[in-house]
Amino acid sequence: MLTLLALHGSGRDETDLAEFCHQLAPQAHISAPRGPFAQADGFTFFRRRSDRSIAAAEVLDLATRWVSQEVEAHLPASGEVIVVGYSSGAIFAEALLSVAPQRFAGAVLMRPEPLSSNFSFSEMPAKPILIVAGKHDERRRHDDAAVLTEQFNKAGAVVSLHVIDAGHGWARHNADVTLARSWLATVTTN
């Protein structure tokens, strides 16, 4: 059975991606953990530095610990698991893919940014990855999605990159879910 591991963005909680995931795959099991760190009126999976940069080594360490401690509580022992991350949840999904690529059948990364400009992922041959970036995203550099795509390509992943008419938030007319649902239908057998 298909499982979606839904990782919310900063200042949000485990309910944030419920409707998106339900629209994406109505029959899938949805596992939506809450990030462990309080932030604003919600939570996050990792903390940024004071200048908003990412401490990649710290995020990878958190991901390694999460996989060893939390993955059994949130994911089934068998079946396909697609990690779905939004914003900082997408960044944490990148870290999970780096430390345990074999645990995930693929990923949907919305409004992501690279862990670092020169990050190298673990080998993940033919791993399907969807990246959905916003053309007018005020929280991302204009080349973040392209840099991340190249990093995944170097690791052997098969990346589908879409830059849509949106900012950091959801696109109009359900464009995010339409793209993701179409992509998911091509990469899953369920």
Unreliable sequence segments: none
Sheet with most strands: 6 strands, parallel
Radius of gyration: 15 Å
Oligomeric form = single chain
Summarize the structure.
By secondary structure, the chain is an alpha/beta fold. It has helices spanning 18-24, 56-69, 71-74, 88-99, 144-154, 175-187, and strands spanning 3-7, 29-31, 37-39, 42-44, 81-86, 106-110, 128-134, 158-164.
Walk me through what this model shows.
This protein has 190 residues and is an alpha/beta fold. It has one domain: Rossmann fold. The chain is built from six helices and eight strands, in the order βαβββααβαββαβα. α1 packs across α6 and α2 packs across α4.
Jot down its keywords:
Rossmann fold, two-stranded antiparallel sheet, six-stranded parallel β-sheet, alpha/beta, 8 strands, globular, single chain, 190 residues
